[in-house]
Amino acid sequence: MVGVRHTDPKRLELTDKLTATDLLVLDDFLTTPISGDTANALFNIIAAREHKGSTLITSQFTPEHWYESIPDKVVAESLMNRIIGNAEIINLDGPNMRIPQ
Predict the structure, then answer these.
(1) Are 46 and 55 in contact (CB under 8 A)?
(2) Which ranges form a coiled coil (predicted)?
(3) Fewest 10 Å CB contacts: which of 20, 22, 53, 58?
(4) 61: part of which helix (H) or strand (E)?
(5) CA-to-CA distance for 6 and 21, rounded, in angstroms?
(6) Distance separating alpha carbons of residues 56 and 72, to the nearest angstrom
(7) Where are the domains of the chain?
């Protein structure tokens, strides 16, 4: 359920730090499916950060693919609305820099 907080003090501390940071960077975002628990935690962090701090997301996939990586479609829709609603999307195209040319 969205909004439920875990009581593990270390997890709460990490969640608070991620929520409060000026810039949250999520690299390789949703390259693999996530659990419902992880989706809820991510939603709580993103929702708490809304209009309070910047979030930079990098991904090899489009936002449409992200929906498929979240098991609960209601959470997926709520999360994507918060991420995409105020997003500035920059598409980078070109050769893979990790593969020698």
Answers:
(1) yes
(2) none
(3) 22
(4) none
(5) 20
(6) 23
(7) 23-85
